[in-house]
Design brief:
The structure is a single chain. The chain contains 16 helices and eleven strands. It has two domains: about 250 residues, Alpha-Beta Barrel (TIM Barrel); about 90 residues, no CATH class. α7 runs parallel beside α9. An eight-stranded parallel β-sheet has the order 1-9-8-6-5-4-3-2. A three-stranded antiparallel β-sheet has the order 7-11-10, with no helix packed on it. The protein is α/β, with parallel strands linked by helices.
């Protein structure tokens, strides 16, 4: 690495490279992808959401008539264990837990008990995250925010209630990110105030001047190659988070059909939708999304109670996002929701995790 590459310190954990692989659910960034990323010196991230629905241990647990929340907790621990076998003891593993989940506290505790190094949390403000990890002081806690204002709210609440600070912030712009976008409305998605060019330096200043801290600010959303990464470092980031590019890897946990959907995607195929969670989301336009945008999805009943706020559960409107994401993971093109970042149009081949790291940092990609 050159002198233009910062050192990323996440509490007690220091990855070899200032790179976090983004958490992508359901099951798209699972144990295999996270383990291989961590093995090669970056931070590998497992998305905790819905793991109980796609875990190899699901069928045995279902026969025991356990509830979905119990299954999720067991599946998270199992996934962290499998990732650790790949990553080795020195690899740094994260679990991304969405604050909007009904079983958020259970999932965070499961990740901690499973031996994860870092908990990353967005899709809402993770105001009580330190409470759920209080018995695991070595775990680094990294909130995802879209502005310095959100970072300030979290930092002040944590300091007042728990006497601790975040170990870093991930600033993610809704203009280019994948999945749920961290914007409350469609109008906010392209708000210049939430661009990385504005929100990232603002958050860097807040951390330095108001928190009087050197915790890292990490950029996320629309980062694809070394040029993108270096631009973020110039804006003050100490690291970057990349999700979409890691989907089309040999080690990626999604099905081949899911990866092919990314490779085939053109600019006109990338659309914004109002998700059942009441938040804007970015996805590949396929038959399912087309039907949804045209109002042709039939009402149904909630099966998982996975989100604290869900139009589908309350009114039967929209669709079951858990089922749609599981269908996508399996590669069911007609009925799946294929969340993506705007850079999905740059995906044109299957590559390895080592090749990505080599291109970003000019290394062999070997441990």
């Amino acid at each position: 690495m050159g002198n233009d590459t910062p050192v990323l310190k996440l509490g007690k954990h220091r990855p070899r490279y200032p790179l976090i692989q983004g958490g992508m659910g359901v099951g798209v960034s699972g144990a295999r992808l996270a383990g291989n990323v961590a093995k090669l010196g970056a931070v590998g991230t497992i998305a905790s959401v819905g793991l109980g629905c796609v875990s190899p241990c699901l069928h045995n647990l279902a026969s025991e008539k356990r509830n979905p929340f119990e299954v999720n907790a067991i599946a998270i621990k199992e996934a962290v264990g499998r990732a650790r076998e790949i990553a080795g003891p020195e690899g740094i593993l994260a679990v991304n837990c969405m604050a909007a989940l009904t079983d958020y506290d259970i999932q965070v505790r499961a990740a901690a008990e499973g031996g994860v190094d870092v908990v990353i949390s967005g899709a809402g403000l993770p105001l009580r995250l330190p409470e759920y990890t209080k018995d695991f002081p070595d775990i680094s806690l990294i909130p995802i925010v879209s502005s310095a204002k959100a970072a300030s709210l979290i930092a002040r609440r944590w300091e007042k209630q728990y006497g601790r600070s975040p170990d870093g912030f991930i600033v993610e712009t809704p203009a280019t990110a994948g999945g749920h976008l961290g914007a409350a409305t469609m109008e906010q998605v392209y708000d210049p105030a939430l661009s990385l060019e504005v929100a990232l330096p603002d958050t860097v200043r807040f951390v330095a001047e108001e928190m009087k801290s050197d915790i890292p600010v990490i950029a996320a959303g629309g980062i694809w190659d070394r040029k993108d990464m270096l631009r973020m470092f110039e804006l003050g980031a100490k690291g970057v988070q990349m999700g979409t590019r890691f989907v089309c890897t040999v080690e990626g946990d999604a099905s081949d059909r899911f990866k092919q959907a990314y490779i085939d995607a053109k600019e006109e195929d990338v659309v914004l939708i109002n998700s059942p969670a009441g938040l804007p989301g970015r996805a590949v336009k396929n038959p399912f999304v087309t039907k949804y945008l045209e109002g042709k999805i039939k009402p149904g009943e909630c099966a998982f109670n996975c989100l604290t706020h869900c139009r589908y559960r309350k009114t039967g409107e929209a669709f079951c996002i858990a089922v749609a994401l599981i269908n996508a993971l399996k590669g069911e093109w007609e009925s799946g929701l294929f969340f993506c970042g705007s850079n999905v149009v740059k995906a044109n081949k299957i590559e390895t995790v080592a090749e990505i790291i080599n291109e970003l940092f000019g290394v062999s990609g070997q441990p």
